[in-house]
Amino acid sequence: MRLYYAFITGIAGWLGVSFYEFTTNAHYAGIQIIPSAERQLVIILFLFTAWGINQIFNDFLGLKEDRINAPRRPMVTGELNAKGALLLSLALLAAVALVTYFYLEPIALFPLIAGVALNVIYQYAKGYGILGNIVFGLMISMCSAYGFLACGPAARPLFTTDRNAALSLVWLMNSLMTYFTYFKDYEGDKSAGKKTIVVKYGIEKARWIGVFSSFLPALAFAVIYLSGRFTVTPGTTFWILAAITFGLEVQTGFLYFKNPVGEKTYYSLSANFRACACGQAALIALFNEQLAMMLFLLSYIFVGFLFGLYKNSEA
Fold first, then answer.
1. pTM for the full predicted model
2. Residues of the chain with pLDDT > 90: what percent?
3. Sequence-distant (≥ 6) Cβ neighbours of residue 306 within 8 angstroms
4. 31 vs 22, 40, 106, 277, CA distance in Å?
């Protein structure tokens, strides 16, 4: 399941949950509706396990390049039975869909189905340069949409400038995060005909693209904030977490510029995943500063800790 990834989907979804509480607080048809602790726990549990469940399909569809990029990965070696894993994942997805429909909110099935579909599409989009990054970022943003819609009757209208802005930032941060993962996959992607940006332009140009791209989330937020897309006023906690996130993003760009190939390329992923998860937690500070601080610290600590448990870079 590669548990460090759980914080990518989990925090993205938690952003949706916290946003629901903030924006509705919650009024629907004149009645205040606050999602119960039990409902929130179920949603967050689904979101933290979402990556692991969906990753089985990703691994199965990416077997060709994984034979080069990750030859010790369980599905590649046969240690993990592909058919059994796929059936289990399908059963878990069906269970999540049923709970969503009967216990949570039926409308949340839309981002759930879209997320699964985008994961399949991603394996093919990955072969067409930046399209793969766009699809991947959109896929993770479905977690935020699911977290929001599953909480309760959605506030109307469904789309507001705040929600669009938050989703676009989640989309961008995850698109950037997956870009850096392509460095370690360069040889396998090239052999499999996957023309990622790194394959298309080569390592030398790609490392420079990475450096400049590491500034994009901060620039995007500046544009969104100055254009008045957010109707909330960021507090001190947000600016502190945003500044740290900016440092983590730039650090990631520097690490891949310095070591675009080799074993260190794999271990730099820890900084990459931390930057993404912490960036999403920082966005929560726009709506809930105390929760954001807690999730930011937990993401930073546990992404590094869990990543450290995976000692084999070929798996």
1. 0.92
2. 65
3. 3, 4, 6
4. 15, 19, 20, 34
